[in-house]
Input
Amino acid sequence: MQSIVMISRGSSRWFGCSQRHSRYYIKRWFSVGTVKLFEYKVDFSERSSINLSGGKYARLSDGCAVATLGDTSVMATIVSKSTKSSSNFLPLTVDYRQKAAAAGRIPTNYLRRELSVSEHEILTSRLIDRSLRPLFPSTYCFDTQVMCNLLAVDGVNHPDILSINAASTALALSDIPWNGPVGAVRIGLCDKNFVTNPTRRELANSELNLVVVSAAQNLVVMLEGSANNILQQDFLKAIKFGVKECQYIVNGIQKLQTEFGKPKREFEIKNVDDTNGNLETVIESLSEIKLREIFTNANHDKTSRDVAVKNVKTEAIENLKSNFENLNFEMCSVIFDKISKRVFRNLIFENDLRCDGRQLDELRKISCEVDLYKPLHGSALFQRGQTQVFCTVALDSLDSALKLDPMSILTSGINEKNFFLHYEFPPYATNDIGRMSPFMRREVGHGALAERGLRSVVPENFPFTIRLTAEVLESNGSSSMASICGGSLALMDAGVPITQPAAGVAIGLIANYDSDDSKHIKDYRILTDILGIEDYMGDMDFKLAGTKKGITALQADIKIPGLPLKIIMEAIQAATSAKHKIINIMNSTLQSTRKPKKENWPLTEILNVPIHKKGKLVGPGGINLKRIMLETGAQISTDTENDAFTIFAPNQEALNEAKEIIDKLISEKSEPQLEFGAIYKAKIVEIREIGVMVTLYPTMQPALIHNSQLDQRKINHPSALGLEEGHEIQIKYFGRDPVSGIMRLSRKVLQGPASSPARSIGGKNTL
Output
């Protein structure tokens, strides 16, 4: 049942349209001219709904839309150049930016403005890119940029899901060719129930953090998530649930596209055939047999195979020079790559064998080593085929935990991390030359994936900060999953009590369609533990990590416009079987966490210091703590929970040296024991406005006698009593304040009619 309301507003009209028993409604508003404003609402549950709107902002862009959840809003804009790029692929750039102003904050850097891109922004940009890229036409090679700006954030709802949905809406409504739309949701598992788009607090208590991106007809476009080692069947249910929820968003965007979408632009398709139409046939006749020999020769490794293919390509182009005038070498290269890919894929279907001679579900040869260098807290070398990763573990004090910037804290809900993984991919790993940068998008993304794969097995209450580094020394595919395997071994070698060993594996896919334009897959092969060439020539890079019990992380990069759930389920099953085999191989090297501690293992110890001696230990401006750190390497920090100090030392020797210095600082050997209620002679060492500073013995730190305790009469300054520096006065000792540890001294109590005999210090009577 529908109801339509029309309200006249001068030269504009507003239409409200709702559908009962439906999960959406549309508001349309037509203004003067061609500008149209719209709003679309999708309800996932009684408390969760996403609003998609547009037509108001950035009207000069090719497409713009705003997605809102709660009080969090993200605006996505799309611009694509009409001039053709020189690339043979889609030059798509995705940038996500979170502005401090969106949270009513000012940046904390010196210039008080947004500067370099944060790690969270890079990861979100990659998430959006992988959700949109597969649905662009393969022949569309025009410069395209997607920008997602955080307009407002409420600290409750996450903006990354909104960014994907806003970008999908903007692309669908624009004139840019795109085979979307897609919908995105986050699935949490709270109290054994699936939650769509959980809040920040709900996600903190969730066993699952899974992002599902799906197109129409329940086709999966992208998956990414982490889990607290949940069972495989629960993970499969979560994916199915997420795909179903995505369809409500997809249906809504399709309706908006029908109502408000622009006609898609015509674009020039790069012609890979020559004018005579036989260049591809000639290149195929010159190279196909040789390519088949190369791709069926299991003796080739990565380098020799690449060299052999390159030689065939060079030879074919040289032969063409004599037969074709004005030969277009770029076109020949594109045609050869197309033929090479087709031959490679056809051989897998024909023989059910891969280019290195393995069966479809067979792992590469794996070898592991641990405890490689004595000074390291933990180390491991993981070799899988020609992929080699060297992992190291460094244990440091809790003060070394990774602190996040305020905006990342607000959007992710994480204040600091005492476990983090840094992934490095130097150019020599692939026999290349290039610059080294610690903040390349690929390195950040792979490091975050490996970190998610191990985070759930690392204990939360570990007394040290753990930095795990994974340096790729050789790469022929699946280096991020090798980092998880090597990282698990390095953690166990360092004595970190992980709950279970974890491993990761990459699953590939080769698919055939009914026709070039069809989305229906007629045949496919799932490949376990893929090589670099199988990733490049294939249709999917499906990475899964976990223990023997369950799954800890997943990331699916799908290169075709969506996969049916059946193939996704088979890929997860293949990955689960493979990771069990990998863990068995790892266990033959190191089965569990190393129990005897290494000699260089760091140590922590709780140090209880009397309140009145804390000042002696810290020193003016913390100078004593700094001196201890410089001399011994031990760090002393305040333990507010236990009202004590915590000593962190890199080894036992450093701890012993630090404790010796601490004992000297707070030693009481030269200090006499004072008796509660006794009378002592005190020497005035300083006159202050509020009282006098006195000492009772030479090595004592000066203590204050307040004006109110100097005389029975009320005085405003000690000079009223004729007191000067160097004078000696009699005082009574009442112990130390239980909170501050300050001595409680009084002179006025001795001016009463009753007085006690004075005690002596050092054998001298003080009366």
About this structure: The radius of gyration is 35 Å.
